[in-house]
């Protein structure tokens, strides 16, 4: 993500779909306090449309808007 050349850099959609964020897509993940994570997947219709092929990797299948 910190690549100087824009042509070689991840797009925002590629970054969100990266395995680095898989823990946030796990329904069982909790905050260090033991409380549930805040709402993370409440994207607008425009954001979902713009995510293209990566939307399936970004928003987990269990999430229901």
Task: Give a brief rundown of this model.
31% of the residues lie in helices and 0% in strands. The protein is mostly helical and 65 residues long.
List the helices and strands and how they pair.
Layout: H1 12-17, H2 22-25, H3 45-50, H4 55-58
Number of strands: 0
- Choose one word for the global shape: globular
Our estimate of the beta-strand percent is under 5%
* Helix and strand element order: HHHH
Uncertain ranges: none
Distance, first to last CA = 29 Å
Write up what this structure looks like.
The mean pLDDT is 92. This protein is mainly α and 65 residues long. It is 31% helix and 0% strand. It has one domain (12-58).
Quick tags:
mainly alpha; globular; 0% strand; 65 residues
């Amino acid at each position: 993500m910190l690549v100087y050349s824009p042509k070689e850099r991840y797009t925002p959609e590629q970054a969100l779909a990266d395995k680095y964020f898989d823990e946030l897509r796990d329904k069982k993940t909790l905050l260090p306090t033991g409380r549930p994570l805040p709402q993370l997947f409440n994207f607008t219709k425009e954001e979902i449309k713009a995510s293209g092929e990566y939307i399936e990797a970004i928003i987990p299948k269990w999430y229901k808007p």
